[in-house]
Design goal:
The complex is a heterodimer. Chain A is built from six helices and eleven strands. In chain A, the strands form three sheets. Chain A has a five-stranded mixed sheet, with helices on both faces. The longest helix of chain A is centred in the first third of the chain and has 18 residues. In chain B, 39% of the residues are buried. In chain B, helix 1 runs antiparallel to helix 2 and helix 3 packs across helix 6. By secondary structure, chain B is of the alpha/beta class. Chain B contains eleven helices and 15 strands. Chain B has three domains: 64 residues, ACT domain (Alpha-Beta Plaits); 142 residues, Response regulator (Rossmann fold), CATH 3.40.50; 82 residues. Classes of the chains: A alpha+beta, B alpha/beta.
Chain lengths: 190, 310
């Protein structure tokens, strides 16, 4: 269950934007990944701040944790043990070495041409990278279309966007930073 | 006065219904046939409605009220971006079609935002070609009451405003419906359908008011009578666009290019009068169509008697 904190001058706007975000998250299938959301909407100042905290999905995992690696003539043979990481591992290998050098032999077996085992052991996979990009998409869908002047703050598990229409003021930025740090520290939680 | 109704029935003995419509001086505005089932949109003299109802019952069909038939309505959103489309703008447009209206959906070029929202003269002129316009103005009360009202205030056709927050009234609009703001999914819940019904009711009231105003100084001919005459034109028969002739409350939109066919249209005869004498024919703002505004009885008769001369 996502915990919402609403603050602003218009009740209908806050409630409707909470409802909109809930529907967007359900639509994208990422409701379970979001822990807490803070919305600040002040139409009289044309200010919109949204801050979202995602649930810890575990830290970066080394490839050696999720797959067995064996040195073979001309490269490394990888057998994936944790299937949920298979697409991400394959995508990372393709990105690093190109499709010609990475052969997917079966669903869970990969051969990487000309790469030693030691090099692959150092590789780490970030499970939250995809979640973050989806989350950013959800926030862009939610933000009112006319509020084009935007600033973002993010760290590992909190993302904050402040949006306005004309000029971003120092006060808006300071408020957004304050919201962001309170979300990072988990202030105001029960 | 003509009344627009819909007959829903089978093809068996349909010619009896068609003959009756012709005998009482009515018109078939649209005929949709799917295998043995037929839907006719008809315009008939009000006083002959019992005859049509009796015939429909005899043929095993039914007569459906289509209060918005013979109208073309624009549903206008701040933009055509995914924040506003397809919901709820298309939901409203689709719902009004169930009551017989022809609807179009329009997004303004710079309608989004608070202080930056604006409407151009060209956009206003396009909207004014329709019988009524529905404006969607969003979720923020402050924004609607202070800035967004400027989008529609000079528009010369009736405007129904649809907004999210609850307000008692807004200036310069004929009707206001609250409780419909931004949506990210189709309006299918019972309370949302009730809101769509409310919007349709407000539009019906607005259109009825407009029709009553016209009745005070009636049109020289009913638009459906002009439609009947226009359908004999080759250009209209060859037109492949959906509904080549669309009825308006005070005229018609003919989907053939004005420049190519204006002479031909001017010469069309309706009850012994040339169309140019009983209507104003003009180019449409949206390309390749012609707008015909029928003059009132007083205007036409005054002109015939020479009253328009100084």
């Amino acid at each position: 269950m996502v915990k919402f904190e609403l603050e602003g001058t218009e009740r209908y706007a806050l409630e409707s934007y909470q409802w909109l975000l809930e529907r967007i998250l359900i639509d994208m299938g990422i409701t379970t990944m979001v822990e807490r959301v803070r919305l600040i909407i002040r139409p009289d100042q044309t200010l919109f701040i949204i801050s979202m905290r995602i649930k810890q999905a575990g830290s970066k995992r080394p490839v050696s944790d999720i797959a067995d690696m064996e040195a073979q003539e001309g490269g490394t043979f990888i057998t994936i043990k944790d299937e949920s990481y298979a697409p991400r591992l394959l995508a990372s290998l393709w990105r690093m070495y190109g499709r010609e050098r990475v052969q997917q032999l079966t669903r869970l077996e990969i051969f990487v041409d000309g790469v030693p085992v030691e090099e692959l052991s150092d590789l780490k996979l970030d499970p939250e990278e995809e979640v973050r990009s989806q989350l950013l998409d959800a926030m862009w869908r939610l933000l009112p279309e006319g509020l084009k002047v935007r600033n973002e703050y993010y760290n590992d598990n909190v993302m904050t966007i402040v949006a306005t229409e004309h000029g971003m003021t120092v006060d808006f930025l300071a408020e957004a930073q304050k919201v962001h740090s309170s979300m990072v520290q988990g202030k105001g939680e029960d | 006065m003509y009344e627009v109704l819909m007959f829903d029935g089978g093809v068996h003995k349909l010619e009896e219904m068609l003959d009756l419509i012709e005998d009482i001086g009515g018109f078939v505005l649209q005929r949709i046939q799917v295998q043995v089932m037929v839907t006719l949109t008809i315009a008939i003299p009000e006083e002959d409605r019992p005859l049509i109802e009796r015939k429909a019952a005899e043929l095993g069909g039914k007569i459906i009220e289509v209060p918005l038939a013979g109208t073309e309505i624009a549903v206008v959103g701040p933009t055509l971006g995914r924040h506003h489309m397809p919901h709820p703008i298309c939901d409203i447009a689709e719902h009004l079609r169930r009551y017989g209206a022809i609807t179009i959906v329009m997004g303004l070029a710079r309608g989004r935002g608070r202080k930056t929202c604006q409407i151009s003269a060209a956009e206003k002129a396009i909207i004014e070609e329709y019988d009524a316009a529905i404006f969607m103005l969003g979720n923020f009360k402050e924004c609607v009451t202070h800035e967004k009202i400027n989008l529609y205030k000079d528009i010369q056709v009736p405007v129904v405003v649809v907004i999210g927050p609850e307000l008692d009234s807004l200036p310069d609009c004929e009707a206001l419906v609250c409780g419909v703001g931004r949506k990210v999914e189709r309006m299918r819940r019972s309370e949302e359908i009730a809101k769509l019904e409310e919007i349709a009711d407000r539009v019906k009231e607005v259109v009825d008011r407009r029709r009553k105003e016209i009745e005070e100084d009636p049109l020289f001919v009913h638009p459906s009578e002009v439609k009947d005459a226009l359908e004999d034109l080759d250009a209209v028969q060859e037109c492949l666009r959906p509904s080549p002739v669309v009825l308006h409350v005070d005229g018609l939109r003919v989907k053939i290019p004005y420049k190519d066919h204006v002479k031909e249209l001017e010469e069309v005869e309706v009850y012994g009068h040339k169309l140019k004498d009983i209507a104003t024919i003009s180019d449409c703002r949206l390309g390749d169509s012609t707008i015909i505004r029928i003059r009132t009885k007083a205007e036409v008769e005054g002109k015939v008697l020479g009253c328009d001369r100084p």
